[in-house]
Amino acid sequence: MDTINWRGVDLNLLIAFAALMETGSVTKAADKLSIGQSAMSHNLSRLRTLINDPLFERRGHHMVATDKARELAPIIEQVLGLITTEILQPKAFSPETYQGTIRLGLTDYAELLFAPALFDAILGQAPQCQLSFYKVDRHNYQAMMDDQDIHLVIGSMTQLPRELDSQYLYTDDHVCLFDSQATGLRAPIDLARYIETPQALVTPDGQLASAVDQQLRAQGLSRHIAVGSGNFLTIRHLLTGRNLLCVVSTLMARIAIFDDQLTQCPPPVTIPDFDINLIWQKRNANHPRLIWLRQCVRQTVTAHVHSLRGQDPGEAG
Question: pTM for the whole thing?
Fold first, then answer.
């Protein structure tokens, strides 16, 4: 490859060659390509130099192809066909025949809420693919997307770097979750009962404090965080039969995999709602596979959120 003069290689020369083979005339080939006859003659001269062969010899008004040109003709036709169908006009992505791996980055929250629905939807459309879920959080998702070649991330990440793009999916809020019998609490609960009840905290980064504690300190109050875990399932299991209260997302409180009869009510403190977004690498945004995957994931998540909220998917929410 190092001995080839790549500066002299021009795709237009292959197009000119194909036109000459088809028409057998410099004039007709020029008309076919909507260029001047002198430009076509110049292209032929460059081709002869590049390939080191006359390629076409004039016989009267007709250009006769050399043996070398006839050998090259089917190869050049194949090359131009590949460029047209695979590069300039790529085939539409067909999930039915896709046999690769689809990699999704999900926070603990997103995986618990959506993994079963995503499995059903993606494998339903692409039954021959493999689906891999990667656990991500707001600290590691960028590195995970690069290192593991993750196609999409679902989470509440904001202030994305410029190489990433996102699409809004929905907004979630919060509820207090507790065992009424074990805590003696009844909904609704006031601030005094809230701060005197030991609390569990879902904490992806291991910190046993959150913005709620800052808010309480501003009022001269505090609460006792008895336990923290990055896994919501652990926290949920701890709540049953124990004097513990936890503030969780409303959708997490509603998932149907539990039959623990825990009580839900609005928290007596102000906790901001949070947006859930779909995130991907900008450089891959126009790949047909990613376009299909974004649409499939967005529709699946939106439908599942409506289902958890008890809404018809056609309703606004």
Answer: 0.73
CA dihedral 304, 306, 309, 312 (to 10 degrees): -130
By CB neighbour count within 10 A (0-12 exposed, 13-18 middle, 19+ buried), where does 304 fall? Answer: buried
Give bridge partners of residue 303 from the DSSP assignment: none
Q: Give the number of other CB atoms < 10 A from CB of residue 271.
A: 17
d(CA 57, CA 59): 6
Contact 244, 224 (CB under 8 A): no
CA distance to 27, 107, 135, 164, per residue, from 205 (Å): 72, 12, 13, 23
Lowest mean pLDDT among 27-41, 85-99, 274-288: 85-99
**Rounded Cα gap, residues 72 and 235, in angstroms:** 69
Please tell me whether the peptide bond between 272 and the residue prior to it is cis, using omega within 30 degrees of 0: no
Output the pLDDT for position 8.
59
Non-local CB neighbours of 12 within 8 Å, separated by 6+ positions: 43
One-letter amino acid of 199: Q
Do residues 202 and 229 make contact, with C-beta atoms less than 8 angstroms apart?
yes
pLDDT at 134: 96
